[in-house]
Amino acid sequence: MTEATVLERLARVSARIAASGRNPDEVAIVAVTKGFDVSVCRFALQAGLRMLGENRVQEALKKMEDIDEAEWHLIGHLQTNKVKQAAGRFALIQTVDSVRLAEAIARHAPTQKVLVEVNVAREPQRSGAMPEDALEVMAATSLLLELQGVMGMAPATGDPAPAFNELRRLHDEAEQRLGRGLPILSMGMSGDFEAALAAGSTMLRLGQALFGPRAN
């Protein structure tokens, strides 16, 4: 893989965003670099992708030692025993799924920017607040941390649109309840981002579309 390869793939992604009726300049892209080495992270930065997403705290912290100019996002589940290491180190933690986790983060970094993850797919193997609990989790989190919005994933199979539409509805309801805007609606990955854009996504999390399949 080279910087030119990433640039080429990013151009294709931008064309697909535009074809969906959205302005590519108004849709943030988090380049998901989990499983790739530091050279790929640098290719992403050189291609203009400033936001890099990692699933595991330890992998992210190791890469941060080599690359400090990126805006690092934690997009994987955060265990409470890793909170001390993660809090304050990421520009955005996208996976707050309970008030308990929000409280733990706040003890170390009360100004941490976060999203509340919602399990709109209602899949037991996935983390995230259940949709019926999400508004309460968002309200409580907004009192503890810098809540920026919500994050979610579509079901592993089937039509992604219902899940994305539900996440958009919860996002809008949270804005009304809190009486302020929540700028980030993080939904859409390499296999379903057009459906996410149609539902109003403002942030995509893309790995394979930019870097191809992972070796592991």
CATH architecture: Alpha-Beta Barrel
Number of domains: 1
Largest sheet: 8 strands, parallel
Overall geometric form: globular
CATH third-tier fold name: TIM Barrel
The helix count comes to 9
**CATH level-4 homologous superfamily:** Alanine racemase
Strand line-up in the sheet with most strands:
7-6-5-4-3-2-1-8
Distance between the termini: 16 Å
Radius of gyration: 16 Å
Helix content: 40-55%
N-to-C order of helices and strands: HEHEHEHEHEHEHEHEH
Total strand segments: 8
Your description of this structure?
The protein contains nine helices and eight strands. Helix 1 (3-19) packs across helix 2 and helix 6 (131-144) crosses helix 7. It is an alpha/beta fold and 216 residues long. Helix 2 links the parallel strand 1 (28-32) and strand 2. It has helices at residues 3-19, 38-46, 57-66, 83-86, 99-108, 131-144, 161-178, 193-198, 208-211; strands at 28-32, 51-54, 71-74, 92-96, 113-118, 146-152, 184-186, 203-206. The chain has an eight-stranded parallel beta sheet with strand order 7-6-5-4-3-2-1-8. The protein has a single domain (3-211), classed as TIM Barrel (Alpha-Beta Barrel).
